[in-house]
């Protein structure tokens, strides 16, 4: 059954499963190798499907990654933005909920969150459809964080020593850096403790 409630027939179920296997394989390989160094054959092989399966289901590697961005928007980015826009609690509470939501997603689906970070780095300063798409994903998150910071600065609940855009960039950098550190040194550090300490730093500073 689709997310809209439509019941799928046997062929449609098989198609959905194959597409999902390709998507999950691509998430993993793009994190490990990067987009440019990952072949369609490697993705198909990782998914346990035939060599031409990516072409059959998506048409090209570019169309595959654009579809993956749609998955990320629906499953992660829209939720992060909604969390930041939720007016319940203080402005700092909203930032903390954003950090926690990203951490929860990263714990459950690490390849997908790391993929977003990896592709943003790989396509930085490029001008093409993939670079534009990943900038739009990050842009929506940045805009939502910046809006919270601007509101907080207007009422004096956050420092105005740093402009809202730079402040928002710092918060997103802390979020992404936390996830990279967690997965880089996962055997040495506790993920929940790292999130808790980041929360403490945001609330009380490092002084």
TrEMBL record:
<dbReference type="InterPro" id="IPR023772">
    <property type="entry name" value="DNA-bd_HTH_TetR-type_CS"/>
</dbReference>
<dbReference type="GO" id="GO:0003677">
    <property type="term" value="F:DNA binding"/>
</dbReference>
<keyword id="KW-0804">Transcription</keyword>
<keyword id="KW-0678">Repressor</keyword>
<dbReference type="InterPro" id="IPR009057">
    <property type="entry name" value="Homeodomain-like_sf"/>
</dbReference>
<keyword id="KW-0805">Transcription regulation</keyword>
<dbReference type="InterPro" id="IPR001647">
    <property type="entry name" value="HTH_TetR"/>
</dbReference>
<dbReference type="Pfam" id="PF13977">
    <property type="entry name" value="TetR_C_6"/>
</dbReference>
<dbReference type="InterPro" id="IPR039538">
    <property type="entry name" value="BetI_C"/>
</dbReference>
<keyword id="KW-0238">DNA-binding</keyword>
<feature type="domain" description="HTH tetR-type">
    <location>
        <begin position="16"/>
        <end position="76"/>
    </location>
</feature>
<protein>
    <submittedName>
        <fullName>HTH-type transcriptional regulator MtrR</fullName>
    </submittedName>
</protein>
<dbReference type="Pfam" id="PF00440">
    <property type="entry name" value="TetR_N"/>
</dbReference>
<dbReference type="InterPro" id="IPR036271">
    <property type="entry name" value="Tet_transcr_reg_TetR-rel_C_sf"/>
</dbReference>
<feature type="DNA-binding region" description="H-T-H motif">
    <location>
        <begin position="39"/>
        <end position="58"/>
    </location>
</feature>
